[in-house]
Every structure is written in structure tokens, then in C-alpha cells.
Model the fold of this input.
Amino acid sequence: MRTLVIGLILLLAVLHHDWWWWDAKGPLVLGFMPIGLAWHAGISLAAGLVGLVAVSFCWPGHLDEEDGEAEPASIEDDPGEAVQPSAEEDAPTATDTGKEEAS
Done:
């Protein structure tokens, strides 16, 4: 399946360069859309489908497995977390004038 997806991606890359519609002024698709723009709309839809197939069938399974040891640590468990003092600890007291008393 992986080879098929890679082949489809390469095919879309080649088909994206639509030199055969480059100078075409007609026909209009649905009566209003130039054929080159319709071609690119189709390529975009096909690229989305190829992406869906790639994710659905070629995604590595080990990336989705739950690992019991890889639990996220809580904030309380993080020793690197700086402890912020509360507002009461930061507030100056009535006896704290900021001046040192001379002895």
C-alpha cells in the first residue's frame, strides 16, 4: 500500500503541471470555469483523497499506541518549576521601611 501511495503522489505531482491546458480559453466547465482551473480543482480533490488514504493505511501504528510510562507529569511533580510567592509574602510589613537601622 505504501508503494501505491508514493506512486499516486508522484503521479499527482506530474499531472499538476498541466501544460496541455495552459493556453486553452475553452471549453468552460459548468458554463463558467476555465478548463485549467477545473483541472486544478480536480487535482486538489485527488490530493486530499490520496492524503486520506496515506493517513488511513500507511500511518505507523506505534505512534498511536498508549504507553503506560509516558504519562504527563503534573505541575506539582515538576522540580524545575519555580515556586511563585503568594501576594501576602511579597507585601511589605508595617515595620519594614527598607532602611537598615544603625546599631
Notes: The chain has a mean pLDDT of 77. DSSP finds three helices and two strands in the chain.
